[in-house]
Design goal:
single chain; 397 residues; alpha/beta; six-stranded mixed sheet; three-stranded antiparallel sheet; 15 helices; 9 strands
């Protein structure tokens, strides 16, 4: 195959283009559209490690299942030719996605090559000169990527492989979590308020010889409600606890008034740890500080510790409380019932997320779940990415 030279700042897309041409030379139906899809994927996502490059190329450059073996051999040869051997990363200098004008279609090249950098424009022109006709299989590659994402959205966290868990964790951290809002008693000046502002009206009348021609109004302020996440990290929740922790990280980025607690046999506050910018580091620190991770489950005692220590604080009063647990209580169910009723009187809304509810045959017959159910306002499942998206939207309802 043509040797993909070491990437340089003058032509950063050359190695990716040469790889697509090599696949075409080996008999794979790789046209311009597929190569452009591959370049855009690497550029937009900033992929640099070997595994990410492999899957980006396989999703965008392979059309038939029988071509996977040929692609694997070509990819190994291409990766070694970059001079990195089997190292963990490739230092590709790829321009950002903002530096390129997005085309109207995945198989369409930009008309104005001068809007891009010189190296990127050269790569576009080289591709366009080689194959001007759009490839019929371009839309198929997009459907493959879309189908893969849709499968991950609907697949249970308990059935994911390690690679799929990493991809889903990245998607969870990017979820848009709607922070609930509340109207306060304080007011502020507003052109369309419902409260008459007598003071501002009289002050304004001084400019019109005491005649109150312009009436002033005030409206009630609104602010985000406190959001409290209580996550079960016991052994029965092991397939789901890390995904729920990723959701907590996304919720922490959505507002300032967010508190996160973990519990197994006892309660642990992890809010400060999740405020870090590195989610992987945060999870490692939580794993070291939460001593009862993947241990037993005592929901009632953990809720009692939370209410005894936080019931008089603004972070819990009037909050939307999200409790993520399968309800398999090992403690006294009567204690859980009493603490849930206490929490319901204190909070604005109680949301229970139970991954077991994702099963069509599930019924809340466990003694812990049955004891808590009368005090729950919203009962959701949290077994896959799609259900967490629904949770993110439900919080702001």
């Amino acid at each position: 195959m043509s040797d993909p030279a070491a990437p340089s700042a003058s032509d950063p897309l050359a190695p990716l283009v040469e790889f697509g041409r090599d696949l075409r030379g080996r008999g794979l139906p790789v046209g311009t559209g597929r190569i452009l899809t591959f370049c855009r994927a690497v550029t937009a996502l900033g992929l640099a490690d070997r595994e990410s490059l492999y899957w980006a190329g396989r999703a965008s450059l392979v059309a038939r299942h029988g071509d996977i073996d040929t692609f694997d051999v070509a990819f190994d040869d291409w990766y070694r030719s970059l001079g990195r051997g089997d190292g963990p990363r490739i230092e590709l200098t790829i321009p950002s996605a903002d530096a390129q004008r997005p085309a109207a279609d995945w198989g369409e090249r930009p008309d104005d090559l001068e809007t891009t950098t010189g190296a990127t424009a050269a790569s576009w022109k080289a591709l366009s000169d080689e194959d001007e006709e759009p490839e019929p299989g371009d839309e198929a590659a997009i459907r493959i990527v879309a189908s893969a994402v849709e499968v991950l959205r609907e697949k249970s966290f308990a059935e994911l492989s390690e690679e799929e868990r990493a991809r889903v964790a990245h998607l969870i951290r990017r979820l848009a979590v709607s922070v609930p809002r509340q109207r306060t008693r304080r007011t502020h000046p507003s052109a369309r308020g419902a409260v008459f502002d007598l003071r501002r009206t009289l002050r304004g009348s001084l400019r019109t010889h005491g005649e109150p021609f312009d009436r002033a109004w005030r409206a009630r302020r609104s602010r985000s409600r406190p959001l409290v996440l209580i996550l079960d990290v016991s052994g029965s929740m092991a397939p789901y606890s890390r995904a729920l922790m990723q959701f907590a990280y996304a919720a922490m980025a959505a507002g300032r008034r967010v508190e996160t607690f973990c519990f197994g046999t006892r309660l642990t506050r992890v809010t400060r740890i999740l405020k870090t910018k590195d989610p992987d580091r945060a999870l490692r620190e939580i794993g070291t500080q939460v001593e009862d991770w993947e241990g037993g489950t005592r929901i009632g005692e953990s809720l009692k510790a939370l209410l005894d220590g936080w019931s008089q604080r603004a972070a819990l009063r009037g909050a939307v409380v999200v409790l993520c647990s399968d309800g398999l209580e090992r403690g006294d169910p009567l204690l859980l019932r009493a603490q849930m009723a206490r929490l319901r009187r204190l909070a604005h809304r109680v949301v229970w997320v139970n991954p077991l509810k994702g099963s069509p045959r599930y019924e809340p017959l466990a003694r812990g779940m049955a004891a808590a159910l009368p005090s729950i306002d919203v009962f959701l499942s949290g077994h896959n990415l799609e259900s967490l998206e629904q949770l993110g939207r439900a919080l702001g309802a």
